[in-house]
Amino acid sequence: QVQLVESGGGLMQAGGSLRLSCAASGRTFSSSVMGWFRQAPGKEREFVATISRSGDSTDYADSVKGRFTIGRDNAKNTVYLQMNSLKPEDTAVYYCAATVATTYSGVVYSSRGYNYWGQGTQVTVSS
Q1: Are 98 and 77 in contact (CB under 8 A)?
Q2: Closest CA to 8 of 107, 99, 86
Q3: Is 28 left (phi over 0), alpha (psi -120 to 50) or beta?
Q4: Which residues, in sequence order, are CB contacts of 91 under 8 Å at separation 6+?
Q5: For residue 116, how far is the Cα from the chain centroid?
Q6: Most buried of 5, 56, 67, 107 (most Cβ within 10 A)?
């Protein structure tokens, strides 16, 4: 079983930056594709970013491309989301997600492809 714990959320003014972290338990972190999703009030959960097992491949939702950066440190069992140039529309609960251990070397976009989820961390961006 993998447990994910997000941290780093908070209140920020538009144009500011935040860095989210997600710490994973277990021995399979380096074998899991990782992703970040978010859910705003009244909206469905949406994909934000994904990173391959090795960290060589990443991809982003168009709405955050060029502003957000996903990274991982397999030695620390941690995945990060650096969020710059924040906008009020970035306000949401952000969730970290992990696949089961896999030999797949790519990225995963669909929430249905992830097996483990964190509890979420609130990000609020004021205008």
Answers
A1: no
A2: 86
A3: alpha
A4: 40, 123, 124, 125
A5: 12
A6: 107
pLDDT digits (tens, 9 = 90+) for 87-120: 999 999 999 999 999 999 999 999 999 999 999 9
Give phi and psi for 7, each to the nearest 5. -155, 165
Residue 39 class from Cβ within 10 Å (0-12 exposed, 13-18 middle, 19+ buried)? middle
Reading the block at residue 6, the tokens are 């997000």
Contacts of residue 67, defined as CB under 8 A and 6 or more positions apart, other chains included, come to: 83, 84, 85, 86
Instruction: Name the pairing type of β-strands 121-126 and 116-117.
Output: unpaired
Neighbour count for residue 27 (Cβ, 10 Å): 10
Number of residues that this document lists for the chain: 127
In DSSP terms, 29 is beta-bridged to none
| Strand-strand pairing, 46-51 and 116-117 | unpaired
Contact 118, 77 (CB under 8 A): no
CA distance 2 to 17: 29
